[in-house]
Structure formats: C-alpha cells, structure tokens
Specification:
By secondary structure, this protein is mainly α. The protein has two domains: 45 residues, Orthogonal Bundle (Arc Repressor Mutant, subunit A), CATH 1.10.10.60; 115 residues, no CATH class. 68% of the residues lie in helices and 0% in strands. Helix 1 crosses helix 2, helix 1 packs across helix 4 and helix 5 packs across helix 9. The longest helix is centred in the C-terminal third of the chain and has 25 residues. The protein is elongated.
Amino acid sequence: MRSREALRRAALDLAAGRPVAELSVAEVCRAAGVTRDTFYRHADAPVSLLADALRAELDSVLTGIGDLDSLSTAEGLLLDHVRAHVDVYRGALQPSLAAPVRDVLERVVAAGLEEWLERHPEIEPPAIDDLPSRAIAVAYAAGGTVAAIEVWLRSGAADVTWATRAILAASPEWWLR
C-alpha cells in the first residue's frame, strides 16, 4: 500500500503543476520513487492514477452523507475538496474534465445521492416510484452537478458558498426537502 500512496501523492503533486495530459509515467515513477512495473500494477496511465487519488480523497470527505443535515452541506464538502485541488481539476479540463476524473466525480456524487435517498425516502416525488426512475434521477443530478463544477472551474471563481448556492438553485426542489 505504500507504493499506491506514493503514486497517488506524486500524481496529485505533479497534476497541481501542469495539465494532467502532459504527465508521463516516467516522471510519476520518479516522483513516487517506484519502478514502471510498480506503476503499471496500480494504473494504466497518469490520468487514471490521478482519478484514483481523487476518488480516495472524495470517499473520505463524503463518508456518511446520509447523516448530514442537508444536501447543501454535502455540496459544500464536495466543492471544498474541489477548491483544495483547484489546480489539479483545472489542469484536467480539456475543455471538459478528463474522462477518468469526470467519471470519479459523477460516481461519487451519484453514490452520495443514492445514500441520501436511502436515508430520506420521503423526499422522492411520486413519479419516482421504481429503481429505474430513481437511477435516472440520480444520474441526471450527478451529471448536472459535475457539469456545473466544470463551469465553476472554468470561470476562475473560488467561492464555495456562491457555487453551492448556484448549483442547488438549479436542482429540482424535491432534492432539497
């Protein structure tokens, strides 16, 4: 596990300095103090390793989302994470987030929304009366949240409170009950 952590740290550190598309396996290995063989046991490309590092952080940030007092709190935690790694996320824009990074964000947001609905089934509108309908609502909300984060990143803004308010204002009201 030390190698994986060293690789994750190296990917985050290097991606904070320049676009992720410019990172090479060789420089990630040098920064992590591991061999190419070790790298390829953990990832197939620097962007995949970066996505894995971000996922690990997001998992710890958003643990227990269903126990939070509101989705606004969860959204703020998510955006605090993005702001803490703003150079990494902006470096992953091409002009949209690199697919592995975007996928991680969407999956984490979707998992959080699923957990929120499990804990708060009373908020679901009557039209969402089966699992496929729920999956569509969650996918729509997760995709929209990530697209909004991309716009926020491209805007150069850093105000988490403002971004949280803007994203939630665009969300269907039933999510916010």
